[in-house]
Design a protein that fits this description.
- The chain is built from 10 helices and 8 strands.
- It has about 280 residues and is α/β, with parallel strands linked by helices.
- It has an 8-stranded mixed beta sheet, sandwiched between helices.
- The longest helix has 24 residues.
- The radius of gyration is 17 Å and the shape is globular.
């Protein structure tokens, strides 16, 4: 397996497939998953001639289960360590959910200043701010997030079945085409990681104000979200991202769930490909 060691000694696992001289696409996964969540995208874009890269966030998947650093600053710095080690240039960065926040901070604070980023794609992403505050009055009440932490601490294995079985993929909706394999794969990825990283990651994805990150992005950016996202409501996420990122392109998908890159991979992949080639 391939790893990059960060400045604070954390081993970050990554996959790097395809021709080294092809345009790279880097994928940033959501909470509490791993690089494996991008299988449908990595195989698709690999078949289109791209170089595809994905890494496991610290404390997730095969990366080190360290005690500290479970915050957006470390997430972005770790991502940069991978990109710098591989010397990726002209890269497209694609992030889902928490990974969308990671992309926003990475692009704003590392990728753009280093001249490494060509375009960005935010899928069902958490920025600018998920929790309800004076600045985000329509955000999620802190009690909801405290409930997630309590459920994780009480029985992580059961909680990690309940999330994909219910709101993540919209499998709780009438008429949904439920995939047991998808649920099991979500559970598998989650249980590979650290309970501490996942617990503290809830604060990272919900309480990090990324307004300035979004304002700082100047590369072409595609913002994608379903209007039936039960995890990150699109009105406080995609619509605001589009407002804050100059010149961004917005796509709202009727009826699509939070994990739409899995449930509707054909549609999402085709739209990302068209955006990259545009």
């Amino acid at each position: 397996m391939s790893f990059v060691t960060t400045q604070d000694g954390v081993q970050i696992f990554y996959k790097d497939w395809g021709p080294k001289d092809a345009q790279p696409i880097a994928f940033h996964h959501g909470w509490p998953l791993s690089a494996d969540d991008w299988d449908a995208q990595m195989l698709f874009f690999l078949s289109k001639g791209f170089r595809v890269i994905a890494h496991d966030r610290r404390g997730h998947g095969r990366s080190s289960q360290v005690s500290e650093g479970h915050d957006m600053d470390h997430y972005a710095a770790d991502a940069s360590a991978v990109m710098e080690t591989l010397d990726l240039k002209n890269a497209v960065h694609v992030g889902h959910s928490t990974g969308g926040g990671q992309v926003a901070r990475y692009v704003a604070q590392f990728g753009q200043p280093q001249g490494r980023v060509a375009k960005a794609v935010l899928i069902s992403a958490v920025p600018p701010l998920m929790v309800k505050t004076d600045r985000s009055p329509e955000g999620a009440p802190i009690a909801v997030l405290d409930g997630l932490r309590a459920a994780l601490a009480a029985n992580r294995a059961q909680f990690f079945l309940d999330v994909p079985t219910g709101p993540f993929y919209g499998f709780n909706r009438s008429g949904a085409e439920i995939s047991d394999g998808t649920i099991r794969n979500w559970w598998r990825q989650g249980m590979m990681g650290s309970a501490k990283a996942h617990y503290e990651g809830i604060k990272a994805f919900s309480e990090t104000d990324q307004t300035e990150d979004l304002k700082a992005i100047t590369v072409p950016t595609l913002v994608m979200q379903g209007d039936d996202d039960q995890v990150v409501p699109y009105r406080t996420a995609a619509l605001l991202q589009h407002q804050l990122i100059k010149g961004s392109t917005l796509k709202i998908y009727p009826g699509f769930p939070h994990g739409m890159h899995t449930t509707h991979a054909d549609t999402i992949n085709a739209d990302i490909l068209a955006f990259i080639k545009d």
